[in-house]
């Protein structure tokens, strides 16, 4: 068992936990946002369907804003209202619906897991956080806790980015909030705090507080339902840590949850002193040449060649304009030559490097890659027959392109 957190970072005043739960839940009942997955989970009597509805929302919400997710969620649940329906979908359909939501492996893994539930678990979702995490691919500790508490009423906590921020502020935790030692302590805290009779609502309330009130840059402390329990706010208002009965201050430098001695409390930051993170690794820079091949014929709208990416790795299985990663510092002339060779392999006919027209550069930031697409275009007259032996490729109109499983970056390239 992990060592208990230093006493200053506990919820250790008599009645404090009960008061915090009560205040938070009362605020949630009054102020919670109306979200489609909440309505579905509340109205759904079937436990498996309820678990599925929450699961889909949790996977979509990873790394993605609520406002963006709503439309995708509604379309997904309309198309695949049950695990069984999703298990029968093709990966192409899943990728098409997911297109634009980012982090594409999420959709693929959700579908793989649905197939597993149908084929190996007789269509029944596991009912506890432990089993959900153990049995479902792509379901980590957070998602398992969220599904189990919201759908099945298990009294288990959750820790996501919002919860990290709120707890670190409530308890003045200033050590690196991405370090395993701090994360472990936050899980212990979340499990101890969660309301035993309304665990799902409590967890959603804590996350909602982080998303709407205890926001990263300018938290609305005046409106906060748990402000009287917040030690960061106390420190901001009174200029010193909250006095805690019978407890000595943490010794500077040796408390695993306090800010490091080299980065003490900064009064100009107020409550946003917390949480703190170690400096992020810079994303890797990549350059990729891409060519919008446009086929014009006298019969109808222009068509564009798209090709399918490999089934693993970045943007697995998605469609894109023929593209080629470039070494850094390649001269433009050389760039054209290697791209022309690459196009020739797709089209089975020679492509003159001089015919490639440079259009511009498109920058797209993936989580760990700073990608620059160097965009060329080439107009072809007449029909081009693709080599069926090469990897999947097809000609599409602009309308078909947008309905295909293409990434947001490729839509930028076409624009
Ligand atoms: Fe966050 Fe402010 Fe509430 Fe503390 S009082 S939990 S910093 S919003």
Automatic annotation (TrEMBL):
GO annotation terms (biological process): base-excision repair; mismatch repair
Catalytic function, reaction form: Hydrolyzes free adenine bases from 7,8-dihydro-8-oxoguanine:adenine mismatched double-stranded DNA, leaving an apurinic site
Cofactor needs: [4Fe-4S] cluster
Residues annotated as domain HhH-GPD: 60-212
Keywords: 4Fe-4S, DNA damage, DNA repair, Glycosidase, Hydrolase, Iron, Iron-sulfur, Metal-binding, Mitochondrion, Nucleus
Superkingdom of origin organism: Eukaryota
Protein family membership: Belongs to the Nth/MutY family.
Protein name: Adenine DNA glycosylase
GO molecular function: 4 iron, 4 sulfur cluster binding; 8-oxo-7,8-dihydroguanine DNA N-glycosylase activity; adenine/guanine mispair binding; metal ion binding; oxidized purine DNA binding; purine-specific mismatch base pair DNA N-glycosylase activity
Cofactor binding remark: Binds 1 [4Fe-4S] cluster.
Pfam family, one: HhH-GPD
EC numbers for this chain: 3.2.2.31
SMART domains linked to this entry: ENDO3c, FES
Protein role: Adenine glycosylase active on G-A mispairs. Involved in oxidative DNA damage repair. Initiates repair of A*oxoG to C*G by removing the inappropriately paired adenine base from the DNA backbone. Possesses both adenine and 2-OH-A DNA glycosylase activities.
GO CC terms: mitochondrion; nucleus
Lineage: Eukaryota, Metazoa, Chordata, Craniata, Vertebrata
């Amino acid at each position: 068992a992990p060592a208990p957190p230093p006493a200053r970072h506990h919820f250790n005043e008599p009645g404090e936990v009960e008061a915090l739960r009560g205040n938070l839940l009362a605020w949630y009942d009054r102020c919670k946002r109306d979200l489609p997955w909440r309505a579905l989970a509340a109205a759904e009597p079937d436990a498996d369907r309820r678990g599925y509805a929450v699961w889909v929302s949790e996977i979509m919400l990873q790394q993605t804003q609520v406002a963006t997710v709503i439309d995708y969620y509604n379309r997904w649940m309309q198309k695949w209202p049950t695990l069984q329906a999703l298990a029968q979908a093709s990966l192409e359909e899943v990728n098409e619906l997911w297109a634009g939501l980012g982090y594409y492996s999420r959709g693929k893994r959700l579908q793989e897991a649905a197939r597993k539930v149908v084929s190996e678990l007789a269509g029944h979702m596991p009912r506890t956080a432990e089993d959900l995490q153990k049995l479902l691919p792509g379901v980590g500790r957070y998602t398992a806790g969220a599904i189990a508490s919201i759908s099945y009423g298990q009294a288990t906590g959750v820790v996501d980015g919002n919860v990290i921020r709120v707890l670190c502020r409530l308890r003045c935790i200033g050590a690196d909030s991405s370090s395993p030692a701090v994360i472990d302590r936050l899980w212990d805290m979340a499990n101890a705090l969660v309301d035993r009779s309304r665990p799902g609502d409590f967890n959603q309330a804590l996350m909602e507080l982080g998303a709407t009130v205890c926001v990263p840059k300018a938290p609305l402390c005046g409106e906060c339902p748990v402000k009287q329990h917040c030690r960061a706010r106390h420190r901001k208002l009174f200029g010193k840590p909250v006095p805690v009965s019978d407890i000595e201050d943490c010794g500077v430098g040796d408390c695993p949850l306090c800010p490091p001695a080299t980065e003490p409390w900064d009064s100009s930051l107020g409550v946003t002193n917390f949480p703190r993170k170690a400096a992020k690794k810079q994303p890797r820079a990549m350059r990729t040449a891409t060519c919008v091949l446009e086929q014009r014929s006298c019969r109808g709208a222009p068509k564009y060649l798209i090709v399918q990416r490999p089934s693993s790795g970045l943007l697995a299985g998605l469609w894109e304009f023929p593209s080629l990663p470039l070494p850094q510092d390649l001269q433009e002339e050389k760039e054209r030559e290697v791209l022309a060779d690459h196009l020739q392999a797709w089209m089975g006919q020679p492509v003159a490097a001089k015919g490639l027209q440079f259009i511009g550069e498109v920058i797209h930031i993936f989580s760990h890659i700073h990608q620059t697409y160097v965009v060329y275009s080439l107009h072809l007259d007449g029909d081009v027959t693709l080599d069926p032996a090469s990897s999947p490729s097809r000609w599409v109109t602009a309308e078909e392109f947008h309905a295909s499983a293409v990434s947001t970056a490729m839509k930028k390239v076409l624009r």
